[in-house]
Amino acid sequence: MTDPSDATAAGAIAIALVDDQALFRGGIRMLIGSQPDLRVVGEASDGRQAVELAARTRPQVILMDVRMPVMDGIEATKTILAEADARGGERPRIVVLTTFDLDEAAATAIRAGASGFLLKDAEPEFLLAAIRTVHAGNAVIAASATRELFEHFQQAPAAPAAPQRYAELTAREREIFLLAARGLSNSEIAAAEFLSEATVKTHISRIFAKLEVRDRVQLVVFAFEHGLV
């Protein structure tokens, strides 16, 4: 198995694979291995092993199956992020993988801090792009899953009133918040609001801080949970 320090030294993104199907892990490992900027630093077949693997190898990105024996992906996600916070180190970016378009387990994993949601049958190029995207600090949700995510929150019980921290957003920040919640990229928001991308990035960072959300996935969840879109 590749030493994670070698991956770091080479500048490659260190990735951990967590899935109870060895054949699936093997396919993803081969795909990642074909990319010079990506490197698999470890594998786990259940959530408990994933927690141990994350502590030992400190991957930058984790591809996490939702449904596994011993400990599922939701609990593993919560534990891994909590332990990273306790150490004071950088949190790994966790991308949830599932065979379902969207179910409560996947939605819960997103609330728990996962940075993305992908279907296992996603195109290889999309999976590779997703890894690079979350590593860069952004979030990803597959297009079909995005629609399902929106429907999931639309079908949920009546949304509670938005918390006070939403009221602290400026008028401009609310406009940008709503555009981001609908899935627009920074460049699209910049065009819609007649702003530079740098300005949009600054606004997005302030919105994250004020709403106490980690990324765009969390922002979408916040918006739909509170009936804001």
Automatic annotation (TrEMBL):
Protein name: Two component transcriptional regulator, LuxR family
Positions of the Response regulatory domain: 14-135
InterPro entries found in the cross-reference section: CheY-like_superfamily (IPR011006), NreC/VraR/RcsB-like_REC (IPR058245), Sig_transdc_resp-reg_C-effctor (IPR016032), Sig_transdc_resp-reg_receiver (IPR001789), Tscrpt_reg_LuxR_C (IPR000792), WalR-like (IPR039420)
SMART domains listed in its UniProt record: HTH_LUXR, REC
Annotated keywords: DNA-binding, Phosphoprotein, Transcription, Transcription regulation
4-aspartylphosphate found at: 65
Ranges for domain HTH luxR-type: 162-227
Top-level taxon in the UniProt lineage: Bacteria
Taxonomic source organism: Plantibacter elymi (nom. nud.)
